[in-house]
Amino acid sequence: MEQLTINAGVSYPVLIGENALRETNRVIRELKPAVTSILLLIDERVYELHKESVDRHIQSDALYILPAGEQAKSFKVYEQAMGAALEAGLDRHSLIIACGGGATGDLAGFTAATYMRGIRYIQVPTTILAHDSAVGGKTAINHPLGKNMTGSFHQPSAVIYDRSFLETLPLREVRSGFAEVIKHALIADHQFLSELMYEVTDLEKLDKDFLQYALKKGIEIKGDIVRQDEREQNIRAFLNFGHTYGHAVEAWSGFGEKLHGECVMIGMVYALLLSEKKAELTFDVNRFVQWVVSIGYDLKTKAPFDELLNLMKKDKKNLNRKIRFVLLNNVGEPVLKEIEEEDLKDIHFLLKRKGE
Ligand code: NAD
Ligand code: ZN
After folding, report:
1. Which atom of ligand 1 is nearest to the CA of 259?
2. Dist CA 342 CA 347 (whole Å)
3. Would you list the DSSP string of 127-161?
4. In angstroms, how far is CA 322 from the centroid of its own chain?
5. How high is the ipTM of this complex?
6. Residues 23, 173, 180, 220: which is the catalytic one?
7. Most distant CA pair in the chain, distance
8. Cβ-count burial of 282 within 10 angstroms (0-12 exposed, 13-18 middle, 19+ buried)?
9. How far apart are the first and last CA of the chain?
10. Given a cut of 90, is residue 163 above it in pLDDT?
11. Ligand 1 pocket, 100 CB below 6 A?
12. Separation between Cα atoms, residue 27 and residue 147, nearest integer Å
């Protein structure tokens, strides 16, 4: 098992490894002030698949089972989770444990952020994508008019990442989550990207130790950016690489039809092509495209440009109605740039040709 420390205003440990879950009680005992009571909020599917080890290693006073995945991030489930916290009699020194993917973490984190104006929580991520979402303290639920539109910054007190959860993750979820690992390499570490491109030839047969190494590396990169800019005043925006066009594709296709990371991969290839034109990128984008297609990413989208453009105009990074993109001057050297509609359109059609 390995341990890292994240410094983001407060500092907290990230435990990562085969049997990390066994450390849960020790981690909780070490929290100051002492924890008075514990509510476990857990994804339904995760509980079904991992009940035995969860019951054995997470000793909670109350348990509330959340609907699987994204359905948990609603006002209704938020109210129910609050109700569970109240019924369990949680006080200001209590703790919420979030066990599940990014959706569970976001809902449980937001519940913790707002229960009695904020109590502590621990993330127990169970997906690859959640290596990203469990660290950094962004919490949110969805509104019918927009995803993640109600939320807050609230750092966890610890992250316990037991890789044995990942063994039951469906391949599509593996691929979706792995896109964010690749994103971390692209924005921060040329060497790490080369390792990924060399080692990862089949997402179904990922070597477990290599996966743990890659997740740890991804967490370190995210942790380092969040340490420098917790509230996204500047460089935290780099974590949005691939997300401007990617989010537009995700929203256009209806959230859930294409998974988040699948759309982010489309968005990253788009941003790389745009970087060749509008930044100084000399990296071999064609080789990268061949690699991601060979491990199963589908770069095709039927979304018409005008509709994607309208969606991109709503992106949170924009200022004064100008569309701003994270581009790469090189692998590991992100920059934020305003882009004209004409260029966005050209790259949309270039990507379409590459995807075919
Ligand atoms: P998710 O939480 O929706 O989980 C995906 C699916 O996998 C669900 O059906 C879930 O039941 C199932 N699942 C979870 N763990 C499993 C396991 N070990 N075995 C089998 N099935 C399992 O999806 P996700 O991709 O982990 O997270 C996506 C969410 O994360 C989105 O809501 C996104 O907005 C959010 N997110 C947040 C941040 C942040 O910084 N807070 C960053 C990125 C993404
Ligand atoms: Zn993302």
Report:
1. 25
2. 9
3. SSTHHHHTSS-EEEEEETTEEEEEEEE---SEEEE
4. 26
5. 0.99
6. 180
7. 58
8. exposed
9. 43
10. yes
11. yes
12. 32
Token pair, residue 2, equals 């390995």
Q: Among 58-67, 109-118, 212-221, 346-355, where is mean pLDDT lowest?
A: 346-355
Going along the chain from its start, the domains and CATH numbers come out as 2-168 (3.40.50.1970), 173-214+229-355 (1.20.1090.10)
- Which residues contact residue 141 at a Cβ distance below 8 angstroms, ignoring those fewer than 6 apart? 73, 74, 75, 77, 78, 106, 107, 110, 148, 150, 151
pLDDT mean over 209-221: 98
Please give the distance of CA 150 from its chain centroid, rounded to a whole number: 17
Residue 336: what pLDDT?
A: 93
CB 350 less than 6 A from any atom of ligand 1: no
3-state secondary structure 201-248: CCHHHCCHHHHHHHHHHHHHHHHHHHHHCCCCCCHHHHHHCCHHHHHH
Mean pLDDT along residues 276-291: 94
Q: Which of 73, 216, 240, 348 is catalytic?
A: 240
Which pLDDT does position 325 carry in this prediction?
94
Q: 101: which 2 tokens?
A: 């993917």
247 given a catalytic annotation: yes
Q: Tell me if 123 CB under 6 Å of ligand 1.
A: no
Contacts of residue 50, Cβ cutoff 8 Å, sequence gap at least 6: 126, 165, 168
Three-state SS for 273? helix
